[in-house]
Amino acid sequence: MIPLNIVLLLGGHIFNELREGKISEIKEIADLLRRLLREGNRIVVVAGGGLLAREYISISEKLGATKAVQDIIGIEATRLNAMVLISALFDISYPYVPSSYEEAVKGLDSKGLVIMGGIAPAQSTDAVAAIMAELIRADILVKASEKGGVYERDPKEDPNARKYDRMTYDELERIILEKKFLPGKYDLLDHLALLVLKRSNIPLAIVPPDAESIERALKGEVIGTLVRF
């Protein structure tokens, strides 16, 4: 495989099992990142917040927190998840969770692998991943999420919902504009992320949340849904 500039967005679902002491999925992803780095790829990983973020956002909302404060709490959850993944790759990755885009780029330049979470309120990890993809001129952004693709309807509500193998950014935008934009609830891809990817013509692969699917997508297979012009 020709070395790539890769942004990998790990949905919070991947980190949920850590709360039960299950580490196999994260370990497999860490092993994949080691292989990718050895092959000469440059990789930015953005961690989602998952249940940890949603639970603390919900608590803060009940306590009267503003949406901005809820966002900040969600950001801290994503940073904690990022630090857990860094702990599995401490010998080869940038050893800190970047607090800015500038730090993330410098970390990538120094180590070839940087793992981060959220950056600013009102900006999801989807948007962070898209902005990083634009900054480093990524060849692809891979989003590993629970749904594992784009469906015409929510597959949890309709098991017969059709999955799109390929689609354009305009088609994806029509679906996204129907979604709500709330802290910790960016289900498919938030609109800002889509606009950033669209303006820079960066391919997006939405895949199941496992190392094998991520690797196959990076090799050019259409796993889940591939979005491009």
Helix content: 40-55%
CATH architecture: 3-Layer(aba) Sandwich
What gyration radius follows from the Cα positions, in whole Å? 16 Å
Secondary-structure element string: EHHEHHHEHEEEEHHEHE
Question: Into how many domains do the coordinates divide?
Answer: 1
Report a brief summary of the structure:
This protein has 229 residues and is α/β, with parallel strands linked by helices.
Structural notes for this entry:
The chain has a 7-stranded mixed beta sheet with strand order 3-2-1-4-8-9-7, sandwiched between helices. It has a two-stranded antiparallel sheet with strand order 5-6. The protein has helices at residues 13-16, 24-38, 50-62, 67-88, 101-111, 125-135, 169-176, 191-200, 211-218, and strands at 5-10, 42-47, 113-116, 140-144, 150-151, 163-164, 166-167, 204-207, 225-227. The protein is 45% helix and 15% strand. The chain has one domain: Acetylglutamate kinase-like (Carbamate kinase, 3-Layer(aba) Sandwich).
Defining traits:
229 residues; alpha/beta; Carbamate kinase; 7-stranded mixed β-sheet; two-stranded antiparallel sheet; 9 helices; 9 strands; globular
